[in-house]
Amino acid sequence: MPTRDRDRAQRAEPAGDSPDPGRTPTIHDVAARCGVAASTVSRAFSRPERVNPATRQRILSIAAQMGYHPNPIARALPSGRTRTLGLLVPDITNPFFLDLIRGAERAAATAGYTLVLADTEETSQQETTVVDRLTGAVDGFVLASSRLSDARLREVYAKTRLVVVNRRVRPVPGVLIDSATGTRQAAEHLASLGHRRIAYLAGPRASWSDARRWRTLQAVARQRDLSVVRIGPLAPTVEAGVAAADAVVLNDVTAVVTFNDLLAIGVLRRLRARGVDVPGQVSVVGCDDIFGADFCHPPLTTLTAPIESAGRSAVDLLLSLFDGDEPGAPPRQDVVLPTRLTIRDSTAVAPTTGPDRSAQDRAGPVSAAH
Amino acid sequence: MPTRDRDRAQRAEPAGDSPDPGRTPTIHDVAARCGVAASTVSRAFSRPERVNPATRQRILSIAAQMGYHPNPIARALPSGRTRTLGLLVPDITNPFFLDLIRGAERAAATAGYTLVLADTEETSQQETTVVDRLTGAVDGFVLASSRLSDARLREVYAKTRLVVVNRRVRPVPGVLIDSATGTRQAAEHLASLGHRRIAYLAGPRASWSDARRWRTLQAVARQRDLSVVRIGPLAPTVEAGVAAADAVVLNDVTAVVTFNDLLAIGVLRRLRARGVDVPGQVSVVGCDDIFGADFCHPPLTTLTAPIESAGRSAVDLLLSLFDGDEPGAPPRQDVVLPTRLTIRDSTAVAPTTGPDRSAQDRAGPVSAAH
DNA sequence: TTGAAAGCGCTAACAG
DNA sequence: CTGTTAGCGCTTTCAA
């Protein structure tokens, strides 16, 4: 049988190429061709230093000319290492995750890992299913904006390597984009521009960042004697922003801070449609600085979040977990990434006409929306 | 040894939970607990119809309470099926691919497949490496805007399942976004608006779509007696668009058609900075209708491409290859997706002042750019 | 430094 | 319908 392979190959390819045409060569084919044991070929690839340089050289070159490539699956079975990472996002549709994916993919690629991408469609159910299906197929997970409960997250952490993004669940290591400082800057920016009454368009109820942002906003409001009204929770989408814009007008504020840029873009769209001038009548501050925030109209003042860095950090943190730690190991230092305010054209001094006056100005359109 | 596991489990967990704490249960643990052969447990999961409903029921419920999940790697080794697909894109950074990824992910998820995502960084080298590394770890590949040569693509196709997007390489099955009809519409739209002199900002040299678009443009130009000037090849990025905008002005045209929206957005940005009114002085037509095309300023007239559909189709086509066909099987029908022109605010009637006059108008800024 | 042998966890004939 | 028996292709002791 092995003889047959050999003969065929010799006849077909003088240079000595693939043995049995159609079948991908295995470690044994290479071993046979080299006159060494299979285990030696294995070592030549996975532990090159433990094999004689001369033999290694020969094995490698013969393998190359046979078109041999180690089978990653077969490799993973005994070793338990797949060199693959799972990245779960709640909604690929959201450009925020594009940047996250990008950062994660790059960090993974740099480390020689491959990324498995899954969309959990905003449900903890799907998330659980995917995690279960992928466990064993990946060396670890990055869960971005997970919808799982703290308890479930801890369970998962107990049986596999895990990093969460935008979530703080001890002892699961996490990457947090800290919008607090940025939010504070934003609020003070608005206060300095003379805004006294601000609306906050809230994100999904379960969002850690949303809670923090709202708390910060309230704190600044107290200090600077502003009044902030919370509108939401809202889906983090352009459509929700469009819808919420009417509530903004109704609430008679001179500035809006939104949970994310998608909402802000929706607000901009709707305000423009209603003839409300931004930033003349209303100032808008977004969050994240996603693709598009700089070329929408007007260009958006927003909290620039290091999203790509977050993706990169999450993968790096996950990878660092592989060095010695057991699953469920003692807590690691969380990575906290700062945000900063990027001022563009959607914010300006509050209209000199007070809120009440401007409310009158807009009486027509407002009632029209009813 | 098996007895030990059993005893432990019984002692630790009255309900009969995981055997050896810390070790994930295997098919054998479940089999032992159920008093059946391992192969029966295997069948209960992979071929439920070939096992007695009662036994299956018992196995499934015991497995569930033991927290057993089939190990995907171990499953893949003998079966050769990983239920995983590889998606390779040249540049995750490009939002075009976000939509493609989205469509592919959805189609894959629907079919119960998982997506492995890789960025080839625009190099055929990286692409080859990734393909080699992933071969065997995925059931097939979708290569989007591949940078591989036709020959290499055929080679890959000979040893694994493969679908290309935006590429026509017989006999490799492909999904093509046919911008020809859309481009024709765009050109005629401009012609009807009175534009006589049009610039085309070309994309990467190797792009199949770019070649087709340019040809179509020339054809229409001949028919409608327009003159078109080709600028490029250009990287398909906002930055390249910014840079090319100056060339556009210099070429003294009244309309620009760009290879993609990123270029168009860059042109818009630069033109605005230079005080050239769009669409008053110059009309701009993009291509693809990516996220942002509808809210940039002014909202972009563009060829709406069914990008997400393309991703979905590519995966569906790939999956269809699994039904019976051998790798390297006879050619399949390519999927051709049409584009259509979406008219927004970046196009308008050509300025009544002829090209020459308007060139004079802009003499200052033009020379300033020199 | 190299070889032989025993699996990794599961699937897939083939009997029964 | 279920059990037995071989592997899938590779890694990994353990000896030599």
TrEMBL record, chains A, B:
It comes from the Bacteria. GO terms for molecular function: DNA-binding transcription factor activity; transcription cis-regulatory region binding. Gene3D superfamilies: 3.40.50.2300, lambda repressor-like DNA-binding domains. CDD domains: HTH_LacI, PBP1_LacI_sugar_binding-like. The keyword Ligase does not apply. Residues 1-25, 346-370 are annotated as: Disordered. Keywords: DNA-binding, Transcription, Transcription regulation. Residues 1-11 have a biased composition (Basic and acidic residues). InterPro entries: HTH_LacI, LacI/GalR-like_sensor, Lambda_DNA-bd_dom_sf, Peripla_BP_I. This is LacI family transcriptional regulator. The lineage of its organism: Bacteria, Bacillati, Actinomycetota, Actinomycetes, Propionibacteriales.
